Amino acid sequence: MKKIFILALSLLVITQLYSQTQGITYQAVIVNKNPQEIPGQDISGNIIPNRAIMVRFTILDAAGTIDYQEEYSTTTDAYGMINLIIGQGTQTTSSPKAFNEIDWNGAPKDLKVDLSLSQADVFYTDFSNQQLNFVPYAYHKNITATGTLIVDGATSLNSRLDVKNSSPTFLTGSLTVDQSTLLQKDLTVDSISKLNGQVTIKADVNGDDDKYESYPLRIEGSNQGIAIKVDESRSNSNNYVTFWDTDGIQGRIEGQTTVDLLTDPEYLYDNSVFVVQLAVATAEEIGAASSVAAASASSTGCVGLGACVTAPIPSLIADAIKDLIIKSANLAVAIAAPIAYNVFKHTQIGVTYQSGAGDYAEWLPKSDINEKFSPGDIVGVKGGQISKSTEDADHYMVISLKPIVLGNMPKEGNESKSEKVAFMGQVPVKVFGKVQIGDYIIPSGSNNGVGIGVSPNNMQPDQYQKIVGIAWEANETSFGYINVAVGLNANDIARLSIKQEQKIEQQKDEINSLKDQLSKMNGVLSQLLPNYASMMNVDQTNSIKISNDKTLNQVSSGIDQNISKDVTNSDNTIYYYQVTTEQVEEGILLAEKSLKENGVDVSKHPFFSKMYSDPEYKKSFVNKIVTSINVQIDKNMKRDIQSGAKVVKF
Amino acid sequence: MKRVLISLTFILFMLTSNGQILYFGVGKTFSNFKYKDSQATSLNHLKGYNQPSYCVGGRYSLFYSPWHVSFDAMYNRYGAKGSDPKLGNYYEWDATYLGTNLGIDYEFFRPPINYNEQHGLSLFVRVTVGADFLLDGTQNLNNTLTDLNGVEEFDKPFYFVKGIIGVNYYLSKTYMVFAQYAEGRSFLIGDYKGKEQLNILTHNISLGVAINLFYRK
Q: Which domains does chain B have, with CATH numbers?
């Protein structure tokens, strides 16, 4: 064999990572290492074209140990060039691992190239041995860069990116993450944060409810708390906050609309009460107008006096007009109150708090801190302290089970000294014995926290102050819990008051009638009996004048005759007097005086304040009263005429 | 220095020559290289050079016979050029040599002298041996010129053997003109096995004038 060509390589190594293949592109022009001999100066650097050769690549680690070795059979082209991909050759038996198993761990690695100029008689000669720099393996897998990695262009990572050794990561630009993001440690955002998707906070921070650290979501750092803005206008289908637990929805804070208000049970109840009050006030006003009409008739003056003509008693008319004025004022208030209430409620539409819990409650201190209470216990409140002993209690209330709102929270550590007491709403109450829906629940009197039901028809006056609430649920057993509405019983007292007032008015009319009779009698007796007036201290200014100056005997006989006549031969004539505007205005003054005597601040009374501030209203009201009375008089006259009586109107 | 020495030797020879005939000629020399590298591989496809040549010498008759001994000096330019398209190489050599030759010739048909006059044609055949010494030279390798002085293959004596055939025309017994064709080949002296071997093949045609110094005297 001739002297073997010793070749040198002029290497141009370009590396590139192919997405489909792995390897390092190797391109080289093979030139004649020894010069070509010609006469004179020899030619150096001749290429070796179209030569079938063998190339062997060896990747050595820092210690010079073979990491990988492969060989190629190839042929140089017309320019002496070969193009190979290191990693796709034939792995030699000396290679301890495959190419894709090379650990590019950042330690220096060398690429050794051997060349055989014959494929038949393979004899490798050292080609080159050079250190692989960044370029060959930067694009390969398992890159371990010991220095700083700076990429000026766009970087595409087709697999995961791990930043280890607790090394911080800084992004000066925006970060867009297309997939879900898992942060296993604290997240601190020093600027405004917008979360456009649903946010779930699931923190395992269970603990006592009075510990700040027990709550998954804590808002701090501002003098404001949480602002919640829902889309669209408020509606009960737009919940600002909904409370869930494992049993489902337990409550919500939702928007309230006019429709919601009109279907609100409390609102409906309040308006029904207004209707009742308006009906009562209307009936009372009509009754008062009838009283004025009756007082303006003279029929009473003729009782026992035969054909005498008696004038109506002015004091009776004025008193009746006074009552009419007061009743009219009450009616005006009864009309104005629901209007004001509805205006207020409609302007206050906003947010509704909904909860499975049914009452508003407050913490109230125990009278005896050792006394035990359980939800549903009826307690007596005395001086703001609660006890199961209901004797001499100021108020009668119930221990709440789960209030929707709980006020007057005691200081930390003092919870055992207080209990949650329902003020208003629905609350389960312990009862004993049969209870019908609508029964009043009052303490049983056994001081054991248990109540009994009493039908409204069987209520005794002294029981009204002990009302705990109204049963909204029946109890058929000897003992049980029933749903009771508490805090709604103020109108029950009002109903009792109305009843009693009606009775008082009835009795008052009877007394006035008696006083009228007695006044007439005193007037007659004063004229008939000497010294009678002085003895009885009778005011004769408005006394009835006896016609024809009859003697006492004559009068007496006349009375007797008239009585007999009244019984047997009555004149049967009734006189009615027209009520004037002056009389009504006088009645207004009397009504004002009466209210003042009863401690009413007339200046703040809605009716009287409007009466004095609006002359047109006063004039209209007076005319209305005059018309109302005269209409009633006309009704009475018709009724009397129909009954066959003779009627005279003045 | 070597070049100066050779030039002085030639001039001294000319001035001290005491030959019967002194001649000088001008001609054209076609030269080519015959080369084998150290692997004994020939360098083919070389094209020779055609360059002018000059010579001057003396010729001495041996005992007035047709045999003559000659000694001359020649100024020659040898060269060749070639290329290798496969490798993309181009090479060219152009070298100037001063040669010295010692020869012997036999003259046929020399015209006789009549009435002290000599006219007519004669033919001669000559064989010379000599050596050529490099005066100057360049090598063009891929358009890069290098000096051949000091280059082993060129800056050494080329030993030549030349065969010459020519015609003399006697203008008189003193002057004659001649034309000759000479073919020469260099040869190597020494052990060149495993070494590069460069030889020069030459073809020369010259016209010249000769002066019979003997008769002039």
A: 2-216 (2.40.160.20)
Q: What is the mean pLDDT of chain A?
A: 79
**Is some CB atom of chain A closer than 8 A to the CB atom of B201?**
no
Q: CA triplet A399, A400, A402: central angle to 5 degrees? A: 155
Measured in angstroms, the CA of A31 and the nearest CA of chain B are apart by 10
Which helix (H) or strand (E) segment holds residue A131: the answer is strand A125-132
- Beta B120-141 vs B89-108: how paired, if at all? antiparallel
Any CB–CB contact under 8 A between B117 and chain A? no
Q: Could you tell me the pLDDT band of residue B140, with boundaries at 50, 70 and 90?
A: very high
Give the DSSP per-residue string, A345-407.
Answer: HHHT--EEEEES--EEEEEEEBSSTT----TT-EEEEETTEEES--TT-SEEEEE-SS-SEEE
> Is residue A253 packed enough to be buried (19+ CB in 10 Å), middle (13-18) or exposed (0-12)?
middle
Tell me how close the Cα of A53 comes to any Cα of chain B, in angstroms: 18
Confidence of residue A430 (pLDDT cuts 50, 70, 90): very high
Q: Which has the higher per-residue pLDDT, A371 or A617?
A: A371
Q: Is the Cβ of B196 closer than 8 Å to some Cβ of chain A?
A: yes
Helix/strand number for chain B, H first, E second? 2, 11
State whether B153 and A39 contact (CB < 8 Å).
yes
Q: Which has the higher per-residue pLDDT, A536 or B180?
A: B180
Look at residues A410, A448, A402 and name the one whose alpha carbon lies nearest to residue A428.
Answer: A402
Nearest CA-CA distance, residue B198 and chain A, Å? 7
In this structure, what token pair is assigned to residue A126? 């050292």
From residue A456, how far is each of A424, A463, A494, A643 by CA, in Å? 20, 10, 13, 41
Residue A567 is predicted with a pLDDT of: 36
Could you tell me the domains of chain A?
Answer: 7-138 (2.60.40.10), 201-256 (no CATH), 264-349+504-650 (no CATH), 356-488 (2.40.300.10)
Chain A contact present for B97, CB below 8 A: no
Whole-number Cα distances in Å, A243 to A235, A251, A252, A476, B178: 17, 5, 6, 34, 135
Q: Which residues of B touch A47 (CB under 8 A)?
A: 87
Angle at A18 between CA A14 and CA A21, to 5 degrees: 115
Nearest-CA distance A24 → chain B (Å):
29
Q: Which of B141, B196, B198 sits opposite A43 (nearest CB)?
A: B141
pLDDT tens for each residue of B77-122: 999 999 988 888 999 999 999 999 999 999 999 888 888 888 899 9
CA–CA gap between residue B107 and residue A283 (Å, rounded): 183
- Given this model, what pLDDT does residue B3 score? 64
Q: Supply the angle between the helices A490-528 and A314-347 in degrees, to the nearest 10.
A: 170
Which residue in B has a C-alpha nearest to residue A78's C-alpha? Answer: B86
Contact check, Cβ <8 Å, B89/A47: no
| Integer Cα distance of B91 and A585 in angstroms | 147
Relative orientation angle of helices A314-347 and A581-597, to the nearest 10 degrees: 70
Interstrand relation of A573-576 and A646-649 (parallel, antiparallel or unpaired): parallel
**Most confident listed range (A256-260, A360-364, A593-597):** A360-364
What is the helix (H) or strand (E) element at residue A87, kind and residue range? Answer: none
A473's enclosing H/E stretch is none
Q: What is the pLDDT of residues A299-353, one digit of tens each?
A: 444 443 334 445 556 667 777 888 888 888 888 878 878 888 887 777 767 777 7
- CA dist A454 and A434 (Å) reads 9
Tell me if A43 and B89 make a contact (CB, 8 A cut-off). Answer: yes
Tokens of A90: 């034939």
The Cα–Cα gap between A362 and A407 comes to: 4
- Statement: residue A455 has pLDDT above 80: yes
Of A128-142, A194-208, B12-26, minimum mean pLDDT range: A128-142
HEC string of B113-157? EECCEECEEEEEEEEEEEEEEEEEEEEEECCEEEECCCCCCCCCC
